[in-house]
Amino acid sequence: MGKRAGGSLGDAGGVNATGRREQPEPPGQPDHVVVFVHGMGRALKGGTLQEWAQPLMLSLHDLSLDLVPDTTQPHLVITKANAVGDPPEVLVKVLRGAADGTPDYLTVLMTEASWGRDFEPASAASTYSWALRTALRVYLRSLQLIKWNLYPGRQRNFRWFGAWLRQLVLTSLAAFAGFFILLAVLVVLLLIIGLAWIPGPGRWIGKLVSLFADFLGDPQVWKRKPLQAAAMRQRVVDTLQRWDNCPETEVTVVAHSQGAAITGQVLFQNQARATNFVSVGSGLDLLGYAQWGGGAGEDPVTDWLANPQRPRWINVWGKFDFVPAGPISTHANGPLPVFGKIYARDSEGDGGPGPEEHPVYNRSALIYDHIVYSKNRVEVLDPLARLILDPPQPASAGLALRMLDGDRRLRPHRVMVKSLGVTRLLAVLTSGLSAPAALAWLGSQEWARNLAACGAPGEGPDPWWSAWLCSGPTYHWAHWQDWGVLAAATAVFAGVLVGLLNGPVWGVLHNRLQRMRRPSFTQSSDPTGNPPANPWWCVAWYLLIVTVVAVAVPFLLAWPDLPWVVVVVLVVALWALCFTRTSITGLPARTVLQEAQPVAPAQPVAPGPAADVVRNLPPAVERGEQPMAHPTASESLPANTVTGAADQRSRSGS
After folding, report:
1. In this structure, how many other beta carbons lie within 10 angstroms of the beta carbon of residue 281?
2. How do beta strands 250-256 and 89-97 pair?
3. Which is deepest, 31, 74, 396, 564, by most CB within 10 Å?
4. Do residues 41 and 215 touch, judged by C-beta distance below 8 A?
């Protein structure tokens, strides 16, 4: 694969006239290039590179330790870094083999393609108009996503009935609550835009309006401003064309959200070349192509299949990410057959043509799921590192973005992610149950009454800002006049619980769970290869802390008004959801564009060049190149207790 770095990275060069030891020059042509493309919103120069490159290098380093465990050679060395240059890039060398003591390094160049300075954002009014017309589509796509994530399975039995009932109830609640939340957001945005025109306060409100237009203006510009959309595409084209004449250099593009829509149009319409196209949280299906971008097609999957130099397309989407809202397929088929194949592997067919699909567990939240792909080491970064360092064989028909073999982190990671949603629900329920007793207790405290400036009994009505506390002494959900105070108290209590438990507590424990090796004070990982503690300990500690903080404390506050049996049943039922059905895996790419047609009688063929045909071949073979060998310490990563999750293509679940 291109030029190799000969010798050890520790070998120094000559000594110059100043007495300083010269370092060997890095090779001019890298073996592998990784290009990161950001999503909507203004991106700082070099920000996307730093967001993705740092954790990816850590995954490459730890993966190299598995491939070459017994060597004195450094496993990863940064030879060049220009995080805010033009272009921002970092060049690293990763050890992938050491046969007969000779190190074999893979040179990887990481860079970014950013269009942040290439266009003026849309106005607030036009952005709102686009958002208003898109809101209903996003709402329906989100409901479909939630419904499939709660898929009860195909076997009709008592367990299936319970899962079906859960799907019906939770989807209905999401539909009801989501509709009013979406309506409220649209109304509030409209009011804010209107108030921005008022002199005086409009000056401050205008900053909120500008923030709204800056964040959501990109998709609107992409669809309505062909010139500015062309400038967005040009940034990606210019970045990728640097390696158009380097057939030995593998190119992987990792594009997020709207960046996936831009990159997809560039690659599928053959404006640039790439080996792998990894779309994460893709906006390609939601946004589509920009006008006047070349080609007559508007169906990304069909265009991808019709391109004889098509890249390997890997589509990664969070299970609750509303932007991709699940897998992608041709416009004629729609995503439902692919959904069905992912969640019911024993069904007939393959789901229809489309890219390799990977539903992943990010944060169990419709919005937050969309922005944390670069923080998901277990299901995104580590498989991406394996795609770069230990790629699949060219003729392989399985998954290209492979989990690490025997990875013991996978299920604990998914249980912890599912626990985020359970913790939110648990916090709301226990806060609501304990809010009456908590307010009554607070109202009985002298320090709280003094702080709220409560008057003495018989001195007349209290001020409006403290009447909610001073007018006690009791509150109850059965009294409708108390609903406002109780709802506000529930929201505050639940917000504090969720912010604490799903913030620093979950973050610290989940970061420990994701590590393949123990952290080191001198290096990124412990080079001795010692694995961290069993990841289930992180899950156990999190569940214990949540049970104490979100259940035991509210229960003590509400005692004896809150029956302990209700609390026990609630905790057991909710935590059981964390461990149910976490075995869903990716779906390999389907590259057959249409069913076989009746064979027509043979016709005379005039001399001329052969017509392009759609073939189910790897990208390198499609381009007429020879399959490249990738020498490693072994044909696949060692199956041990540290690395990897075997591809389980026969199981499904939520």
Report:
1. 26
2. unpaired
3. 31
4. yes
- The CA-atom distances, in angstroms, between 592 and each of 303, 328, 414, 469, 584 are 13, 15, 32, 67, 24
Grouping H, G, I as helix, E, B as strand and the rest as coil, residue 550 is helix
Q: What is the pTM for the complete model shown? A: 0.82
Torsions phi, psi for 499 (to 5 deg)? -60, -35
Find where tokens 């509303």 sit: 322
* Helix runs in 9-123, H state only: 47-67
Percent of the chain with pLDDT over 90: 31
Nearest to 630 by CA among 243, 94, 96, 5: 96
Beta pairing partners, 36 = 112, 254
75, 59 Cβ separation under 8 angstroms: no
pLDDT tens figures, 612-641 = 433 334 444 344 443 343 333 333 343 333
pLDDT tens track for 136-145: 888 998 899 8
Give the range with max mean pLDDT: 8-12, 18-22, 524-528.
524-528
Residue 150 is classified by DSSP as T
Tokens linked to 382: 């580590």
Neighbours of 422 (CB within 10 A): 21
Q: Yes or no: say if 614 and 305 are a contact pair by the CB < 8 Å rule.
A: yes
> CB count, 10 Å around CB of 296?
6
Tokens of 614: 């759609």
Cα 583 to the center of its chain, rounded Å: 18
Q: What is the pLDDT of residue 37?
A: 94
Q: What is the DSSP letter of 314?
A: E
| Token code pair at residue 345 | 């592997």
pLDDT for residue 458:
54
